[in-house]
Amino acid sequence: MPTRSIYLETFGCQMNELDSELVAGQLRSLGYTFTPDQGAADIVLYNTCSVREQAEQKVWSRLGEMKKRKAADPSLVVGVLGCLAERDGHGLMDRMPVVDLMCGPGELDKLPALLDNAVRTRESLAADDPKRAGLRSARLAALQGNSSRRSGTLAAAEDSLELLDLSRSVSPVDVHDGARRSAYVRITRGCNKFCTYCVVPFTRGAEIHRPPNHVVDECKRLADAGVIEITLLGQTVNHYRFELDAALEVDGVVQPQKGRTYKGSHNRDSLAGDRVTTFADLLYRIHEEVPAIKRLRFVTSYPRDFGDDVLEVMRDSPRICRYLHAPAQSGSDSVLARMNRGYSIAEYDEFLDRARHFLHEPEKGRPLMLSGDIIVGFPGETDDDFALTIDLLKRSRYKNCFIFKYSPRPGTVAYDKIPDDVPEQVKRTRNNDLLAVQAEISDSISRQQIGRTFDVYIEGPSKAERKRQGLSKSDIRKAGQVAITVGGHSLEDDLSFSGKGVSGGTGFQPADSGRAGLRPASDTIQLSGRTDGDLIVFIDVPRAQAEILTGSIVPVRITDADRLSLFGELP
Ligand code: SAM
Ligand code: SF4
Hints:
The chain is α/β, with parallel strands linked by helices.
């Protein structure tokens, strides 16, 4: 079969970015190539998100654009991967006949077979009757459907998705520039929380924990290939728990395990011992067994049941970042109850106090940095509820916060049972008010850092510097690197500048400095990097030094700041 080239665009969260990377690695090993140019691709794949309507709309408009192209090129294959495919099922193909294949996030290991089938089907349709072929789709799908929430405490033996994570191809080619020295590693899939607004438990299925040895081995392989920064991923990462006595083995491979309901504890003494790996144990193992990983962080933390054991491991392990992304969603107990979040604001406050007690050490150059998510305009949210959310923001002092207007999602409890009664205009006003409050907090946190010295992981030329030099995305992307586009941005951009993986909302998020754009051309280059607390830092260095520094961690003294970023110099 001749080589086929794929355009793969990713929407939504870090989980999707990782899925795209794994899928791309697998397809590349089968001989497919990747192109950043949609118009030149034989196969167009969209890895979709349905968490908010906005992300979904982008996919519909991309699919609309594909109609014309397919009419002109009947052999073109169009595929929809991820949450939207899982949620809409075959209805999606009825609405968009241009789609040849769909693959849910729990079935991505089946994508190669599906794709091969779709390519052959389209080619034979095009050969038989090119005029009619443009109108027909191959209609191939791999979806979990109802099986995604099958009952039982153990993973089904056929959990073949684990093989996709295990097959991750890691090579120095992937990590030869600064941006690719960072990687995501999944520790859990799915979610059991059922917040009433959220589609994730339906699209990604039940919570499943990966065997700790698989996770540690993956970190080792990434480190061997040059990765120095790893972000562990899970919807509620701190609930990770793997029980060896209950583990199933199939063909000598320990299988992932379904999440069990258990009450977390604040007490390290209560750890269950050698046969159980808790999240604290997993963090400790990676820190101790993979010292080449200079930075270890994790997202997203669920504010309830966050034990002291995790905070102690973070405190005692110098390579674990002092950063927590712990979404509160609202500052009002009655809204939290309607959201089914399972904690009160008093409990949330207690958690942040405890986290600061263990981890906030600004005098040692290691302040604890927090970030959050808030939904405004959830059904029934009153002015008083909203005022409580503003208070929460002021108390919590996040370095940044993703703020979303409530978006009713088909299939969720809130969509079916709680009328979306907050007018759009009120949602918009509350959204803007909260952004303004957060901007002030971010500004003050930034300015507090002036005079401090931080270890900064240098990611490469800042976005403004690249613009100033007239470099396009494809100039920057090195030959041989996989071309993956994230919601219109290249994956490298998103990894490098601000962890926008949770993007798509109107969250206030430190972005890139505008200052470089105003500077005259010079012998210096502006590089951007991040502190271990995820603060964005810019430094100007001589051109000759830029390449040596990129991808390394260096001390930087902060000399100036604005609400988006810090500016510093090498001491
Ligand atoms: N598991 C994480 C947690 O519990 O914090 C969050 C995962 S969710 C994919 C990312 C964020 O999207 C949520 O924290 C929430 O703020 C936002 N979100 C989810 N569903 C939403 C909806 N229906 N409308 C608006 N924002 C939503
Ligand atoms: Fe969605 Fe709640 Fe699960 Fe987060 S914890 S993924 S918001 S259901």
